[in-house]
Design brief:
The chain is built from 2 helices and 9 strands, in the order αβββββββββα. It has helices spanning 2-13, 160-170, and strands at residues 31-39, 42-53, 56-65, 68-79, 82-90, 114-115, 118-123, 126-131, 147-150. The protein has an 8-stranded antiparallel barrel with strand order 1-2-3-4-5-7-8-9.
Length: 174
């Protein structure tokens, strides 16, 4: 008697008893991407560590240029399959000219957030970066291009202070 009552109530109330709640869609920009190469006998790795909650994406990146590493923090908005980086700070270089607050030398000219025209997108499991004006397309992308997704950055990853900032930023407090 109980089963027919549940079925009738389910039909009347429009409730599905057997169907589980739908799983939330995975955040496509949540994860780590890294590529490494050998430079003068040493392994040099570039990475991006991203955390996405809803349409907000926060990230840490490190790249190697002019014989030095450059590290930055950034915040952006995801629309479809593209993440538009809106603000960035870190080691001044080709990506930004603004130091992050609390990490600048005493004589720094710019401290805080700077703007960015960088966009991120994915093709075939790899992460790509382009400027705001360049088209976003996977046409012509081959398996060796872009930065591959990795499970872990290992010893190459960011320091604890940067990981704490990433968690805070994802929660809406950058």
């Amino acid at each position: 008697m109980r089963l027919p009552t549940i079925v009738i109530l389910s039909i009347v109330a429009g409730i599905s008893v057997s169907a589980p709640a739908p799983a939330s869609a995975p955040a496509p920009f949540d994860g780590a991407w890294m590529s490494c190469e050998t430079y003068r006998g040493a392994e040099i790795c570039t990475y991006k560590l991203l955390a996405q909650r809803g349409n907000r994406v926060c990230g840490l990146q490190r790249y190697f240029a002019t014989s030095a590493y450059y590290e930055q923090r950034f915040v952006g908005t995801v629309t479809g399959h593209v993440a538009q980086i809106e603000k960035m700070c870190g080691d001044p270089g080709s990506e930004t000219d603004t130091y992050c607050a609390g990490r600048a030398p005493r004589d720094a000219a710019k401290i805080g957030w700077g703007t960015s025209s960088e966009r991120l997108f994915q093709c075939r499991g790899r992460l790509f970066s382009t400027s705001r004006d360049a088209p976003v397309s996977c046409k012509g992308v081959t398996s060796g291009m872009g930065m591959p997704r990795v499970r872990s950055l290992g010893e190459q990853g960011p320091q604890q202070e940067d990981r704490a900032w990433l968690a805070s930023c994802t929660a809406g407090r950058e």
